[in-house]
Design a protein that fits this description.
mainly alpha; about 150 residues; elongated; 4 helices
């Protein structure tokens, strides 16, 4: 289970990294339409939540320490916050449907939250790798008498 946790947490990290690529694809698609962000939306609303849930499940099944399980839960909460920020940013438009300063600020928070999520997933992956690694060797005490070669 611990090796599976490492693999799934790595897949989650890759999915989060791809989100930035997919957001850029949407931003630079000309002419921009609702489908410009399709990859970003599908990855953020389906792929990442499934991988986040799998990461949590595997952390529990791997009998990871409580800190790692808690850290594994955090990306799912950040994904929920991402969706709320995106909806809120879209809600703050003027009567003509144009962006407002408040909407753009909230959209900026959507990006910042994405960066935070990536850093959290990096922490989850590092902790999973440490958990799956070999157990540290026990320390052996060696007594050396003064005057004798070591």
């Amino acid at each position: 289970m611990r090796k599976a946790l490492v693999v799934v947490s790595l897949l989650l990290l890759v999915a989060f990294a791809l989100q930035f690529v997919f957001a850029a694809v949407g931003a630079f698609t000309k002419p921009a339409g609702d489908d410009a962000y399709a990859l970003h939306s599908v990855t953020g609303m389906a792929v990442i939540p499934v991988l986040a849930l799998l990461t949590i499940l595997l952390a529990v099944l791997a009998k990871a320490p409580g800190r790692l399980v808690g850290l594994a839960v955090l990306p799912l909460g950040l994904v929920v916050l991402q969706a709320l920020l995106a909806m809120l940013a879209n809600a703050f438009t003027d009567t003509a449907g144009a962006s407002t300063p408040v909407g753009l600020t909230v959209a900026g928070l959507h990006a910042v939250n994405g960066i935070v999520a990536v850093h959290v997933v990096v922490g989850v992956h590092r902790a999973a790798r440490a958990l799956a690694g070999p157990a540290p060797a026990e320390a052996v005490t060696v007594a050396v008498r003064e005057g004798e070669p070591a």
